[in-house]
Amino acid sequence: MSNSADKTKSFCETPDEAVKRLVEIFGMDILADHRRFCSAFSDIAPRLSKENKSFYVAVSENVGKLYITLSEKVKSGETTPPDVNKRALAIVSEYLNPEKSRMVINAFSYAMGWEKLPDVQDSASDQGSVNSTGENVLSHEHNILELAENGDVNAQYNLGERYYFGNGVKHSYTKASHWYRKAAIAGDSNAQKRLADCYRAGQGIPKDYGLAVYWYGKAAEQGDYEAQKALVRCYKSGGPNLHKDIDTAQQLALRYGIKLSGDNLNDMIKYSAENGSIPSQLRYADMLFFGKGVSQDKTEAVLWYERAAVQNNAEAQYSLANCYASGEGTQQNLGKALYWYEKATANGNAEAANTLGCYYYYGKGTAKIPEKAVELFLMSAQAGNSDAQYNYGECCYNGISMLKNPAEAVAWYKKSASQGNPYAQYSLGWCHYFGEGVMQDYNTAKRLFELSAMQRNPHAQLALGYCYLNGQGTDRNFAKASQWFSKSASRGLAEGARMLVKCHATGGYFLPKDTQKAQRIADKYGVEYSEL
User: Fold this and answer.
1) pLDDT, tens digit, for every residue of 97-150?
2) Are 427 and 394 in contact (CB under 8 A)?
3) Is the alpha carbon torsion for 341, 344, 348, 349 positive or negative?
4) Are 377 and 415 spatial neighbours (Cβ–Cβ below 8 Å)?
5) Which of 93, 174, 216, 398 is a plausible cystine mate for 204, CB 3.0–4.6 Å?
6) How many CA atoms lie within 13 A of 115 on its CB side?
7) Residue-level pLDDT at 127
8) How far does Cα 485 stand from its chain's mean position?
9) What is the pLDDT of residue 395?
10) Minimal CA–CA distance to 483: which of 499, 459, 506, 505?
């Protein structure tokens, strides 16, 4: 069972870094899910909200799905990265200006490990090109106006963008604000922020700061950093239908962590925490725990986590439970850890539910109650936690408090593996390898073992070694097999060490026999050479 409690965050400063990090963390499938992509993008690159809007447009128009679909063809040589980039550029250029279009495509290409678009003086010259299949890359499958008129929120926002920038249509702030309004009313934070911009600048609609702060506020509550800053600025300056209100500006700046001119952000967060702001208490606790912007003090951090936790903040309750579980900043106390995990779970924290499930599964700090563990794993899994999805899949596969159900296990392994969980990737590969719960497929098994092995899972490294040894899902190659057996052996797997010795002792495809090397490896890992 897996229990992930790493709260360390590292913010990305460029779109290239952000997209690559998302693919590394969640797997390539996130490129096809625009809402999850943009939510995660906001988390790891909070200062790139303007760029995030461009990616929202691109991903919602299936550009990410295009990269996923064609990446295998690139690997097989059926097409090339430049052809894929040109095709994607043609799609996204219908909605974004040339600069934003190239930014998006370069970020996707970088995340795939490909070359970026070449520097050109006139990028428009590329837009009428034909790709290697003879398809005109300017063709687009969607009628955006029809979709927008039928209530498609993404299309409404995208159409507003086209009118706002004059991309593919005659520039019109009036029509832009019309479509922004429709998407904003439906709850789209990007459209809410854009509509507020229009009210603030008087673009297509009368200038009205009162309505601007209304829509900025809607977007700000959904985490839009640019909207949060604009909201503070509006109250700080005042304008048509809005009186200047420095106190409100200050309160909002403290709430959202916005730096006002002449103010120190860290001091503002501490001040806000001391004055009872629960989000600021949690943020200040994190700063103290990880030493971000202040001197690290885990003992003080625990006190601030507790202040927020007793006010029923689920994330603070989870962090406090982790401190008691690990003994960081306080004396280790599994009873208190269990108490706060229970509280955080009751308040909907999926990570806490998964951790609590592990406690009941292993009997850590409490009696072993497998049925309770399974219930908690399912609760957390349904909330999207990848560790819990893997754990519940393991319960289905092994028949823990239920009938053994490999097919159900496969379904949950897939959900977790799509988020990049190495254990789920390995288990899903295992099911494909042996045909349990799914049709046997060595090619898919090998690919999944490889994804997991690249994340240093020794069991996946061992399995990948066997694939190369036996020619399952790939050509036989003893040299590559020995490389993966070596990696698994170095991470403590005795079977990996034995197979590594055996490969060198016997030799095989692309690996010469070398008994002396085999003996040295056997001595290194304590393998009984004479018994092989």
Assistant:
1) 777 888 888 888 888 888 877 764 333 333 333 333 333 322 333 467 888 888
2) yes
3) negative
4) no
5) 174
6) 9
7) 37
8) 30
9) 98
10) 499
Phi, psi angle pair for 136, to nearest 5°: -70, 115
- Tokens encoding 38: 């943009």
SS3 78: coil
Residues in the chain: 532
Token pair recorded at residue 360: 């009941």
Q: How far apart (Å, rounded) are the C-alpha atoms in residues 366 and 358?
A: 11
d(CA 220, CA 42): 12
- Buried b / exposed e along 356-380 (16+ C-beta atoms within 10 A): bbbbbbeebbeeebbebbbbbbbbb
Phi, psi of 273 (to 5 degrees): -65, -45
At residue 277, the 3 state secondary structure works out as coil
Residue 438 DSSP class: S
Q: What is the 3-state secondary structure (H, E, C) of 31-47?
A: HHCHHHHHHHHHHHCCC
CB-side exposure of 322: number of CA atoms within 13 Å? 21
Closest Cα partner for 449 from 418, 422, 476, 471? Answer: 422
Phi, psi dihedral angles at 379 (to 5 degrees): -60, -50
The SS3 of residue 115 is: coil
What would the pLDDT profile of 32-82 be if each residue is shown by its tens digit?
A: 776 678 777 777 777 777 777 778 777 776 788 888 888 888 887 778 888
Strand partners, 242: 239
More confident call, 248 vs 448: 448
Nearest C-alpha neighbor of 53 from the set 200, 149, 188, 201: 188
- Pick left, alpha or beta for residue 428 (phi over 0 → left; psi -120 to 50 → alpha; otherwise beta): alpha
d(CA 275, CA 290): 22
Average pLDDT along the chain: 86
Q: Is the pLDDT of residue 320 over 90?
A: yes
Pair 308, 285: CB distance under 8 Å: yes
> pTM of the entire structure?
0.56
Q: How far does Cα 274 stand from its chain's mean position?
A: 32
Choose among 102, 225, 97: nearest CA to 164.
97
Amino acid (1-letter code) at residue 415: K
Q: What is the pLDDT of residue 7?
A: 34
Closest of 473, 407, 466 to residue 435, by C-alpha: 407
pLDDT for res 349: 96
CA 28 to chain centre: 10
* pLDDT score of 138: 29
- Counting Cβ atoms within 10 Å, is residue 103 exposed (0-12), middle (13-18) or buried (19+)? buried
Sole residue written with tokens 């993404």: 154
CA distances from 83 to 71, 97, 101, 130, 491 (A): 11, 20, 16, 9, 41
